Amino acid sequence: MRVALISMTPVFPAKAGHSVRILQLCKAIRALGHELTFVHVSSKLDTQKPDTASHVEFFGEQHYLHLHDGPRGARAVFWLRGKLRRRWRKILCGLGYEHSHYSRLDENWRNAWTHQLRALDRRFDAVVVEYAFNSRALDAFPASTRKLLDTHDAFADRHRPFVVRGFRKGYWVSLKPQDENRGLRRADAVIAIQAQEAEHFRQQLTRDGAVERNPEIAVVSHFIGLDQPVPDHSVDHAALYVGTNMLSNQISLGQFLEHVLPRVVSAIPDFRLRLAGSICNWAPDLPNVEKLGFVDDLRLAFARAPLSVNPTIAGTGINIKLLDAMGAGVPTISTLTGARGLGAQFRNGLRVVPDHDHDAFADHVIRLSKDADLRRSLGLAAFADAQRWNEGQLAALDRCLRGDTFTDVVPSPHAPRRDRWPDPRSASAAPTAA
């Protein structure tokens, strides 16, 4: 099949969880034997500058397209409309109106992009668009093309959990449910990252009628970058936290630093918490905290701290930092919220504690950071889970692309395993800082 993937997020450099998901999705599409063209649009919703040379090297010059933003006059009108919308929302916010939190579905999509997509001198069997608020791209393709929407998350009323906790920002984009539904219905199939989100979309689509136009709902979760598990678990008294500098990570890491780390240091004075990713820009300087910054190869970071901590207490979707540790063959201590979306059959290398149970979290960190043999055995179990996980996601993606009848896939514990995840590029899997 000839497949196009349209994204506002570049996959090189892959510095955050969403870019890593898209990169691994691209690898999976190619591993299935399909011809893939990557189409990039520059949106203010993702200001990461693409590494053009790396994109061309990975996809090939004929299969990497960057769409321009249109003529100067159209760009000026687009900018002015955006500025007026932001000012109006600021006024509404000052007056206490909830409407100030909502974005329009298509407000960040440019007409010039639609024109360029329609003018492409190639035909695709399937097209994948990243995020519901970019779903207008699907309208540029004929009905004969299978249209898929990779949602990443649910954006209807996304602001509400943040506002309840006193945060006016941090939710990125919030859509009215009827607007998100309109975006979902542009697709033949909607891809959710976990079963709970798939059911949420089904119920949300059913509530506003027009059931006959509802798309298929599939579950294709994140693909885990697999190479080889970390071979050496001998480094004691250390753990790794991977994260981007986003509000949910700040909240979660802040609680860990305040409540869990002091308990651990009391028992192990030379304990080191190593941080990787842009969360280092936010994290305070503390005696037992070491900031690694952005790490090109997470396996090297895990080799320096073969124990992952995932103290997540905020946010939505499957936690990519959890999958990163599984792919590296490293055990993880996680809160219940941090383990969301990961079924019990994939938790063999995981220790889960209730949210806000700081004593239990600290106890697990203390025990595992002292016991290399236990870390190694749990890490191998995590890596085996990662292999089975990828097999299931690959099967679900294949059915989704082809339009076969499908159900949510949960691989059997006895599903065949691959020693290595198919990787069209010889370089190791890109890091994430989710």
TrEMBL record:
Pfam families, sorted: Glyco_trans_1_4 (PF13692)
Keywords, sorted A to Z: Transferase
Signal peptide residues on this chain, from the entry's feature table: none
Stated name of the protein: Glycosyltransferase family 4 protein
Coiled-coil intervals: none
UniProt cross-references to SUPFAM superfamilies, sorted A to Z: UDP-Glycosyltransferase/glycogen phosphorylase (SSF53756)
Superkingdom in the source lineage: Bacteria
Molecular functions per Gene Ontology: transferase activity
Region (Disordered): 408-434
The keyword Transferase is annotated on this UniProt entry: yes
